Structures are given as C-alpha cells and as structure tokens.
Amino acid sequence: xxxxxxxxxxxxxxxxxxxxxxxxxxxxxxxxxxxxxxxxxxxxxxxxxxxxxxxxxxxxxxxxxxxxxxxxxxxxxxxxxxxxxxxxxxxxxxxxxxxxxxxxxxxxxxxxxxxxxxxxxxxxxxxxxxxxxxxxxxxxxxxxxxxxxxxxxxxxxxxxxxxxxxxxxxxxxxxxxxxxxxxxxxxxxxxxxxxxxxx
Amino acid sequence: xxxxxxxxxxxxxxxxxxxxxxxxxxxxxxxxxxxxxxxxxxxxxxxxxxxxxxxxxxxxxxxxxxxxxxxxxxxxxxxxxxxxxxxxxxxxxxxxxxxxxxxxxxxxxxxxxxxxxxxxxxxxxxxxxxxxxxxxxxxxxxxxxxxxxxxxxxxxxxxxxxxxxxxxxxxxxxxxxxxxxxxxxxxxxxxxxxxxxxxxxxxxxxxxxxxxxxxxxxxxxxxxxxxxxxxxxxxxxxxxxxxxxxxxxxxx
Amino acid sequence: xxxxxxxxxxxxxxxxxxxxxxxxxxxxxxxxxxxxxxxxxxxxxxxxxxxxxxxxxxxxxxxxxxxxxxxxxxxxxxxxxxxxxxxxxxxxxxxxx
Lengths: 199, 252, 97
Description:
The structure holds 3 protein chains of 3 kinds.
Chain A: E1 24-25, E2 46-50, E3 56-60, H1 61-66, E4 69-77, E5 82-93, H2 94-98, E6 107-112, E7 117-121, E8 131-136, E9 139-140, E10 150-152, E11 165-171
Parallel strand pairs in A: 1-5, 2-11
Antiparallel strand pairs in A: 2-3, 4-5, 5-8, 6-7, 6-11, 8-9, 8-10
Chain B: E1 13-22, E2 28-33, E3 45-51, E4 57-63, E5 72-77, H1 86-92, E6 98-105, E7 119-124, H2 128-141, E8 147-153, H3 162-171, E9 175-181, H4 198-204, E10 213-218, H5 220-232, E11 240-244
Parallel strand pairs in B: 7-8, 7-10, 8-9, 10-11
Antiparallel strand pairs in B: 1-2, 1-6, 2-5, 3-4, 3-6
Chain C: E1 6-7, H1 12-15, E2 27-30, E3 36-38, E4 43-45, E5 51-54, E6 61-68, E7 71-75, E8 79-83
Antiparallel strand pairs in C: 1-4, 2-3, 2-8, 4-5, 5-6, 6-7
C-alpha cells in the first residue's frame, strides 16, 4: 500500500457491511467506457438472439417494446469498487426473451453496438436474474449509461451488464468476452470478489 | 522518430511539498522536493498516487510545470468541480505533506533545446502547464528557438502564471504570447471573446512554411478542435503533437 | 460525469510497469485499418476497468492493458507491429529521456 495522503478521503463513499467485499457506496452514477458512446437510432435498432443450431430470432424496437416488461430495483456493483444501491430500471426480463427460443445451450456471449462483448452462463440469464433495460430512474436510458437498451445482470459485476446491447449468441462452449480475455474473471461474482483471473 | 528512452526501474517516489503558490483564485502551484529526482524534459508528466486511510487509492497524471532543477519540481493544479483529486491538491494539500509520484514519464510530448526549429505552442486552460515548462526550459538553457504561444483562457482572471508570462513576453527574446479569451475579454481587447479560430492561429502563430514544431495541450475537446484547425490552415499533422487532459484539468 | 478520452501519453506511466522502454513514442500500425502513428496519439479510454487504446483513424482497439496489484494483462493484437527505437549502446539515454 502507498503512503497515506494526509487529508485525502477520495470520492464520497462509505463501506458498509451489506456491500460485497471491497466495495464502496457512491451517490453518483459513474460512467466507464472502453470506447466512444454509440449513437443508435431506434429505427435501425435490432436485438438478435442466435441459438446454438444457428437459428436466429430478431426484434426491432417496436417488437421489443411489446414484450412484457417490469419495473425493478436492483443494486449495482462495479469491479472498479463502486456500488450503487436501489437503482430503478424498467426492462424486459430475459426469461421473456429466451422463452421464445428453443435452446439447450449452456453458454451465452452478449454483444453490443460498438463491438463490446461479455460472456456468462445461460442459467445466469434466467429465473428473474437478468433484463434488457430501456429505462433508468423514471426516464429513457441515456446513451452514456447504455441506452437505448442494455443488459442488466445485477448479481454479477457490472461489466457483465453490457451497454448498448444488440444481441446474444447461445453457444455450446464458453467464449470469453472483451474484459474476460484481458484479465477479468470469467464469471464475476461480487460476493466472492471474483474480479480477476484466478480470484 | 524519437530516440530511445530507457526507463530503468520507474518506481514510486515520495516528494515533500515545500511551497504552495496561488496562480489564480482557484489554481495553485505545488513545489515539491523529490530526493534523487533524475531530472525531466519539458513536457513530461508525473503520475501521482493518493491513498486514503482505509487503503483506497487512486492515480492521476499531472504535467510538470517547471524546467528541470535538481530535486525540485513544480506542478500546477486547476481544481475540477466534483473532481476527486484536483480539489484535494488545490485546496487541502499543505506544506510539509508528502505526495507519492512516479516519473518523469511521456517521451512524446517533449521539447528539447538545441533544434533551432520555431515552436508553436497552443494551450487551452490548464493545458498551458507543460508548455510553460518548455518556455521556462528555453530561458534556462538560453535556447534561441523562436517561440509563439497562443493561450486560450476563459477570462483574464484565469490566466496561469500571469505576471511571469507578462514579464517573459517582454523580456524573453524571441518569445511571443497571445491570449485569447473565450468568455470575457478585457476592455480594449483587439479581439472579442470567443473560441480560437483559424484566423487567430494564422495571426498569432507560425505559418506552416516555417515548419514549426507544434504542441497543443488542454482538455480533449479543445485539443481536437485546435489540432483540426492547425491542419486545416496547412500545418503538417506529423509536426503537431498533442496532449489531452480529458474533460478538464489533469487526467483523467 | 462521463470522461472524454485521453491520448496515449496517459499510457506512459502504466506501460512503464511492463516495459523498460517508453512505448508511447513507438510507431504502431493499426491491425484494423493499417494506418500508422505514434502510440502517444492513440485515443485512450482510461476510466474503464483497465485502459483501452484505440486507433485515432478508425477507432479500432489497438492495445488493452489491465493492471491489478502484481499482475498486468496486455493485449497488443490490435497492432500489426510496433516500431521502436532501441539504444545502440547502454550510455545512450539522457535524464528525462
């Protein structure tokens, strides 16, 4: 550890026993990105699910918004150590999305406009654990936070909640994504502090 | 191509604050004593690391404002509203406090005396800091390369090193300084307040056929606009070096 | 609250943990668009987990660096190659080089 900087407290944060290990509570909503914010026009937005047999199902924005949606309140945990509790979203449950797909695939590779990818087991997308969110805090999801739509998987570190989501590939094999191939943990459970390879 | 820069072991050092100097109502210069400092070239920066009592730590880069001078180096910090580090450095840090730093780093955005090329400096706000190191190094080494500085700043009260720039503009042979005000120009100013544009760069800078070494520094938006203007008016993009400061102030 | 990107100058310190030579002065050829330029002028997103450097011409990822106490992960697949100046002799570098 470095020398203590007298009088330095860092960002407005506190650690609390109900947070995952190593996390701090923040009041703002930091924006972290690996690239420029994509600007996506709703008229051309598309969400595509490709099953392991190659079959494809797509939704345009209108069709996507016709899927049953719900209001949810979830906690967010970023690998950079900030946590934000009680965030409000509206989104389509991944259970509703995947109900329309015939699949026995074990693995998912999520993709975004701009090229970002992240991987997770299909079972982590089911049973009320994941949504495609299009609204945050009562308004349309802003581009800098992943709008028009992002994946939301709050039980894993926030890098798994791909912003600007545009599709999911259902696979028979695991395909590590953008950060998972650069040292970040393949699964990313904040409660077991799985930040990096080998954690 | 830049010549080889072998870093050796670039480890974290501890510097002690020996002096603090207000530059404007908000910005201040931190003078550090860093035992064993290996010296630095004008334009280089240091990475600072701050650690809170609970172990939380964060790093930021700050350009070195001073010319190389033994164990002494100066940083100038403009606090960003809602910043995490800059308000601490500009407001809380006191004489006698210690700072962890690594450097000097950055072999690209560097001016070295002895080339005789004209130098065209374009600064946006706190982007002046590394360019001031170049101006100071030029004076210290007696280098005669002609320098022209265009310094874009919000208003006269925001000018960093105001007295020193005024003195140098008068005394340093071959240095020309032009301030451009974006929000409020002083009364009688030849140019109304506004962002820099091609005509200003043409009037106050070097023409492309002098093949100046161009250094542009400041917030990312400023640097991109200025660099585009410079290329538009004919400067060779390979002669334009840029350093971006993120949204504003030190990076990130 | 979002940060605008920096440039490759911001990689100098972090890459010094991995390389003994200042890689920011090296010339890289982008694997996506084949344009060349100094690493110092790459577009750098430093507020993501890790640091991402992108080609200023085509925005393709040219370099990824993730560091966590004691380990660094470096991906240079976005560069076809790096052209570096290396010292001819041990005495070649000057202070602040």
